[in-house]
Write a structure and sequence with these properties.
The complex is a heterodimer of chains A (119) and B (113). Chain A is mostly beta strands. Helix content of chain A is 0%, strand content 51%. In chain A, strands 2, 5, 6, 10, 11 and 12 form a six-stranded mixed β-sheet that branches. Classes of the chains: A mainly beta (119), B mainly beta (113).
Chain lengths: 119, 113
């Protein structure tokens, strides 16, 4: 079984600044994906960014980038030029991509980090 | 990406009754899942909705309490049966292609009195 840990229950940042959200995970799988999802007060879960475990290059999506450290089982999210609309709860999630496994395709979520962007 | 809708968006129900939540995807997907989320907390997987066969439930969730149907590749329902106040929660469905990310519906906020 895999576990995902987000050790920062809450974070805050000033508009236009940069913030990093932490995530660590534990797994014995070698084929997996990692995701960051955003859930604003509207409660709609929005996919922010994903990382395939076999890729060494860190994923980026506009202002969002990750620092994927596979050996350390760490997957942090960096938000640059923070905007008020980035205020949300952020979830780190693990997905087993081994088709023969019982947990194939299922998401395991961390506890979430509430991010508040201040004007 | 898939666009997912859920109905109803919220409901208030009496103890002992049942509620069926619908999840519709705008494209064919291989995988569909149902999650439960207490406000301000993380998501817990209830079950995998399997097309044309019985759902696969996670530990702590049973078919009698949460019957799930998935008659085709784009539609699934979750029923919360014989409800109690402890079932008050947000229920979300997700969907995606095998080996790809999951996309989520907007959720159903259920309150049981």
């Amino acid at each position: 079984a895999q576990t995902v840990t987000q050790s920062q229950p809450e974070m805050s940042v000033q508009e236009a600044e940069t913030v990093t959200l932490s995530c660590t995970y534990d797994t014995s799988e070698n084929n997996y994906y990692l995701f960051w999802y955003k859930q604003p007060p509207s409660r709609q879960m929005i996919l922010v960014i994903r990382q395939e475990a076999y890729k060494q290059q860190n994923a980026t999506e506009n202002r969002f980038s990750v620092n994927f450290q596979k050996a350390a089982k760490s997957f942090s999210l960096k938000i640059s030029d923070s905007q008020l609309g980035d205020t949300a709860m952020y979830f780190c999630a693990f997905m087993n991509n081994n088709a023969g496994g019982t947990s194939y395709g299922k998401l395991t979520f961390g506890q979430g980090t509430i991010l508040t962007v201040h004007p | 990406s898939a666009v997912i809708s859920q109905k109803p968006s919220r409901d208030i129900c009496q103890r002992g009754t049942s509620l069926t939540i619908q999840c519709q995807v705008d494209s064919q997907v291989t995988m569909m899942f149902w999650y439960r989320q207490q406000p301000g907390q993380s998501l817990t997987l209830i079950a995998t909705a399997n097309q044309g066969s019985e759902a696969t439930y996670e530990s702590g969730f049973v078919i009698d309490k949460f019957p799930i149907s998935r008659p085709n590749l784009t539609f699934s329902t979750l029923t919360v049966s014989n409800m109690s106040p402890e079932d008050s929660s947000i229920y979300l469905c997700s969907a995606g292609l095998a080996g790809g990310p999951q996309y989520f519906g907007p959720g159903t906020r259920l309150t049981v009195l």
